[in-house]
Amino acid sequence: MDIKTATALRRLRLVSAPEAISFLLLLVCSVLKRTTDFNAVPVMGAVHGFLFVLYVLFWADAWNRAKWPLKTAAFYFLMSVLPTGGFFADRRLKREAEDAVIASRARTEGVVNA
């Protein structure tokens, strides 16, 4: 994995958890708007919208650089529209990055997969 691909995946990881948190907070604000006089939906909607757009931009960049198959790209996009999906995307991206580091070290040390 080259440095640009690793950077694209890291950016996607960095925005996935905040995007998921903002989605959950937006849902809470929506409930509060309908049950009380508290209305933070316009603010949380803007925050979540901004983070969602960032997620989609970083997702597209990561898809392009990592050369994911359609199934993997669709999975990560689906994670952006599920309320807690960003947490699962972050965990899976972390695992993929760790596996890439291990594979890179194995290649540099001359270890061949058996």
Task: Summarize the structure in words.
The protein has one domain (3-109). Helix content is 84%, strand content 0%. The protein is mostly helical and 114 residues long. It has helices at residues 3-35, 41-66, 70-81, 85-109. The chain contains four helices and no strands. The protein starts with a helix and ends in a 5-residue tail after the last helix.
Topology:
Elements: H1 3-35, H2 41-66, H3 70-81, H4 85-109
Helix pairs in contact: 1-2, 1-4, 2-3, 3-4
- The whole-angstrom Rg is 17 Å
Q: How large a portion of the residues is in β-strands, by DSSP E?
A: under 5%
Main sheet: strands, sense, barrel: none
Classify the helix fraction into a percent range: over 70%
Mean pLDDT across every amino acid position: 89
Shape: elongated
| Number of helical regions | 4
The computed structural class is mainly alpha
